Structures are given as structure tokens and as C-alpha cells.
Amino acid sequence: MDVRINDILMMKKAHPCGEKRWRVLRIGADFRMQCLGCGHEIMVPRFKAEKNIRSIVRDKNNSTDSNGSLL
Question: What's the domain range around 24?
Fold first, then answer.
């Protein structure tokens, strides 16, 4: 799954604050994500996060082509 820093992830389950959207702050074996409702930050193993992603919203300003260079 192609997840990048600053992507907004729409998750299947809501955070206790009621928000389903999370901003990706760090990627690797774990994802560091920030809730867009309350600002809470969590670290989640990559396999667990990818299993719960419903959709990815990508900021057009941070878009890159397949070679990794900015468009």
C-alpha cells in the first residue's frame, strides 16, 4: 500500500473522539499518526494500520510521480 507522509487516512473504526481521519507523521515498520479530531498521536504497527485503512486522501501539493520526484 502506498502511504506517504502527510497523507490523510480514513480508517474503518472511529477514534473515541468520533473522528475517523488520521494524518500520517512517520512511516516505516510503524506508522505515527495524529487524530484530526483531538490531535492525539499514536504509533501503530504497519500491518495493523494498513488492515484498517478505508481510503487515502493525498494532498496535491505533496504529490510525487512514480520516480519519487515532485510533480
Answer: 8-59
Nearest to 44 by CA among 6, 11, 2: 11
Mean pLDDT of 27-39: 96
CA distance 22 to 52: 12
Sequence letter at residue 21: R
Q: How many domains does the chain have?
A: 1
Distance between first and last Cα of the chain: 20
Residue 70 confidence (pLDDT) above 60: no
How far apart CA 33 and CA 41 sit, in angstroms, is 6
Q: Whole-angstrom Cα distance, residue 28 to residue 32? A: 9
